[in-house]
């Protein structure tokens, strides 16, 4: 399984690799077994490709519900740093996944919302700035509209 995860995280953004990723993502939701690979997901946040970084973040968010050891608390600054990624598409892909974190850990709401509010989006194209702001607003609306 470890090799499969490494392959999926490192693979190029193709239809086949996306299908393999979706299967891994589903396993993360269904099986506590996938939590043991947190070190791989964390390492992936520093990956060379934007696809690698975004996929790693997504798997972290999908497995946070299995985090009985409090790794999220220990690594939260590193995990949230993805929101300052050099690639705007990474930020766009990751923002919606924060809902997974906030469902499992509503106590982190203030930290996450402060991080989102402090983001400097000026480094991205104006069109992407608008889209990222919209993604953030959607997440904030979900948070405000629920018991999260």
Helix % is 55-70%
How many helices? The count is 9
CATH topology descriptor:
Leucine-rich Repeat Variant
What is the CATH architecture assignment?
A: Alpha Horseshoe
Shape: globular
Judged by helices, strands and strand pairing, the structural class is mainly alpha
What top-tier CATH class fits best?
Mainly Alpha
Summarize model confidence as the mean pLDDT. Answer: 95
Query: Any idea what the radius of gyration is?
Result: 15 Å
CATH H-level superfamily: Leucine-rich Repeat Variant
- CA(first)-CA(last) distance: 33 Å
Strand content: under 5%
Q: How many extended strands?
A: 0
Number of domains: 1
Protein name: HEAT repeat domain-containing protein
SSE order and pairing:
Blueprint: H1 2-10, H2 15-30, H3 38-44, H4 50-63, H5 71-80, H6 88-94, H7 98-104, H8 109-118, H9 126-145
Helix pairs in contact: 2-4, 3-4, 4-6, 6-9
Task: Write a structural description.
By secondary structure, the chain is mainly alpha-helical. It has one domain (2-145): Leucine-rich Repeat Variant (Alpha Horseshoe). The protein contains 9 helices and no strands. The protein has helices spanning 2-10, 15-30, 38-44, 50-63, 71-80, 88-94, 98-104, 109-118, 126-145. α3 (38-44) packs antiparallel against α4 (50-63) and α4 (50-63) runs parallel beside α6. The longest helix is centred in the C-terminal third of the chain and has 20 residues, at 126-145. The relative contact order is 0.11.
Keywords, please?
Leucine-rich Repeat Variant, 68% helix, single chain, 148 residues, mainly alpha
């Amino acid at each position: 399984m470890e090799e499969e995860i490494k392959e999926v995280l490192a693979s190029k953004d193709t239809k086949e690799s996306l299908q393999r990723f979706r299967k891994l993502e589903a396993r993360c939701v269904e099986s506590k077994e996938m939590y043991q690979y947190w070190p791989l997901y964390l390492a992936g946040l520093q990956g060379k490709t934007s696809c690698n970084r975004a996929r790693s973040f997504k798997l972290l968010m999908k497995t946070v519900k299995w985090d009985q050891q409090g790794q999220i608390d220990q690594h939260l600054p590193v995990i949230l740093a993805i929101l300052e990624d050099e690639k705007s598409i990474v930020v766009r892909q990751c923002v919606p996944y924060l809902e997974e974190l906030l469902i499992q850990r509503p106590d982190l709401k203030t930290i996450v919302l402060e991080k989102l509010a402090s983001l400097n989006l000026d480094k991205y194209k104006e069109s992407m700035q608008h889209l990222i702001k919209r993604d953030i607003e959607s997440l904030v609306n979900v948070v405000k509209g629920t018991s999260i």
